[in-house]
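A further point concerns the way the authors explain their paired sequence and structure data. Since the whole study asks how a given chain folds, the encoding of that fold should be made plain. A single example would do more here than another paragraph of explanation. An entry of this sort, consisting of the sequence and the corresponding backbone structure tokens, reads as follows:

_____
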Amino acid sequence: MKFKDKDLIIFDFDGTLINSIPDLTLAINKMLVHYNASPLTIENVTPFIGNGAKPLVRRALEYAMPNKELTDDFFKEAFDLYLSAYKDETCKDTFMYPGVLETLKTLQNKGFKMVICTNKPLGFIEPILDTLKIKTFFNSWVGEDSLPKKKPDATPLLHLVKEMDTTIEKSIMVGDSKNDILAAQHANMESIGVSYGYNYNENIADYNPTLVVDNFSELQNLF
């Protein structure tokens, strides 16, 4: 299969381009230590990722401290602790998935515009791109707090299409989560699901992306 006449590729970030679970887990555990709660494993934290920072923290607290009432004040304090911890460890053990660097180079050389649409807070995106030395591949990026709505709403995708001065038909979404595929469907946009990401331990194919790939490198032959 070939995706013809595309000029914009919209990538999800966590679970698609990068694996940030080690650092997210580290930040969650720094927060939990403050409350003398038992630390969580990477396996515990993985299904909590995908809807943004606040749902991640809420799910972690509910799992690690099931008897604790999550009042607004308590949650705000815990969330601030998490953000501070993640700021300290934004890209300590985060890494790119196999084939990402080579594929980004290939797609850039073919002339594609590439952007990032993630439910990670905006402030954490650029430091990771800088640390991994891949910022030059992307024309723009939006986080969960960049616009009034986030994935699975179509708003961030439509925003990026407009910003890049192209059309829905010439754009495609690439992601590992149902939020990515649903956002693309809500925007009437084609999508590629990658099978190796997080996606709440669900099969990405169940959400009917246009195509599913098992390795990021496969994108080199699709465009």
Notes: The radius of gyration is 17 Å.
